[in-house]
């Protein structure tokens, strides 16, 4: 018999088997009330988890919720850096995530020691970091941004301000092109968005000439250049709702289609496929898909795995997130 703590340190999540007689959704809702917990979910997690969440959103919306909630516990269904961000913003709340292994290729691309050395080579630069990074990188950052506010945050700085943008080079290049700013880019990428297949996308565009192509700015430059609209997940969702068009090719993680289909039931939404021939013919984030109903239930029940951030790092990271939230009021 392993203890819950041993399960978490060995496997990264509570491996306790859940009885098949349990109604997981009813139990999650009961535990949520009993423990005064709130469930936050990103648009990329499984639809069943989105459906039971108290709030579903993009990285900016989720951070705003994490900072504002009055719940005692936050169950963050997304990836590790999102849970960490919630803990940085709400240090007195217990923050649990369903699976500690749910990382992010962008966050992994920027180890703190290498990034500190890179920053030291550019002493007169301000550091803007995409929220998809570790607490240590946020602590080395002046202002955090998300794909919803990156343009505004860069534009809020004086034109001659030298900027390091990390860790997503595709988002950084896109922002540099849009704002006309010359930024030093860290060379990180999202494994999901850069894997969207150019060939399969071209084929889809031939098959659906009447579809608009909408894309997340983590996609490669050639996809962004041919897109009719580029934005964060929330931005893409709002766009399909407001547009008069009836057909869209959606170049981002397929989880967003769950809310999109619900919001615009009559419109045709076609996911942009990745390079492998998976059964969904779409692009899926393996980390986001580590969130399962069973793990959500166990995380809520056993209050594990819990996110901890050392206080010295947290305080510095809090400053860069606070500046972002301040500059994002009204978004
Ligand atoms: P947004 O939801 O903020 O657009 O971010 C997308 C993403 O890749 C999150 O990991
Ligand atoms: Fe990270 Fe990309 Fe997955 Fe988002 S979709 S969590 S950026 S790997």
TrEMBL record:
Binding sites annotated in the UniProt record for [4Fe-4S] cluster: 104, 190, 285
Cofactor binding note from Swiss-Prot or TrEMBL: Binds 1 [4Fe-4S] cluster per subunit.
GO molecular function: 4 iron, 4 sulfur cluster binding; metal ion binding; quinolinate synthetase A activity
Keyword field: 4Fe-4S, Cytoplasm, Iron, Iron-sulfur, Metal-binding, Pyridine nucleotide biosynthesis, Transferase
InterPro entries linked: NadA (IPR003473), NadA_sf (IPR036094), Quinolinate_synth_type2 (IPR023066)
GO cellular component: cytosol
Gene Ontology biological process: 'de novo' NAD+ biosynthetic process from L-aspartate
Subcellular location: Cytoplasm
Protein name: Quinolinate synthase
């Amino acid at each position: 018999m392993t203890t819950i703590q041993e399960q978490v340190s060995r496997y990264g999540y509570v491996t306790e088997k859940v009885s098949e007689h349990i109604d997981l959704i009813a139990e999650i809702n009961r535990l949520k009330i009993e423990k005064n917990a709130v469930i936050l979910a990103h648009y990329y997690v499984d639809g069943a988890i989105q459906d039971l969440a108290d709030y579903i959103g993009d990285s900016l919306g989720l951070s705003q919720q994490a900072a504002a909630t009055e719940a005692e516990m936050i169950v963050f269904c997304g990836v590790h850096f999102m849970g960490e961000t919630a803990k940085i913003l709400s240090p007195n709340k217990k923050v649990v995530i369903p699976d500690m292994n749910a990382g992010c290729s962008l966050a992994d691309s920027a180890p703190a020691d290498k990034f500190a050395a890179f920053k030291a080579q550019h002493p007169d630069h301000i550091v803007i970091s995409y929220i998809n990074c570790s607490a240590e990188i946020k602590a080395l950052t002046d202002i955090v941004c998300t794909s919803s506010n990156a343009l505004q945050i860069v534009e809020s700085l004086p034109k001659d301000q030298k900027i390091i943008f990390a860790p997503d080079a595709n988002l950084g290049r896109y922002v540099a092109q849009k704002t006309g700013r010359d930024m030093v880019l860290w060379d990180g990428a999202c494994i999901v968005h850069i894997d969207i297949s150019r060939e399969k996308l071209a084929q889809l565009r031939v098959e659906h000439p009447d579809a608009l192509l909408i894309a997340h700015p983590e996609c490669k430059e050639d996809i962004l250049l041919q897109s009719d609209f580029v934005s964060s997940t929330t931005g893409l969702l709002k766009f399909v709702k407001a547009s008069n068009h009836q057909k869209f090719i959606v170049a981002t993680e397929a989880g967003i289609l769950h809310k999109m289909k619900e919001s615009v039931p009559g419109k045709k939404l076609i996911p942009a496929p990745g390079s492998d021939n998976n059964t969904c013919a779409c692009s899926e984030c393996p980390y986001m898909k580590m969130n399962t109903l069973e793990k959500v239930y166990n995380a809520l029940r056993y209050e594990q795995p819990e996110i901890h951030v050392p206080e010295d790092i947290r305080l510095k990271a809090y400053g860069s997130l606070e500046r972002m939230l301040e500059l994002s009021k009204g978004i």
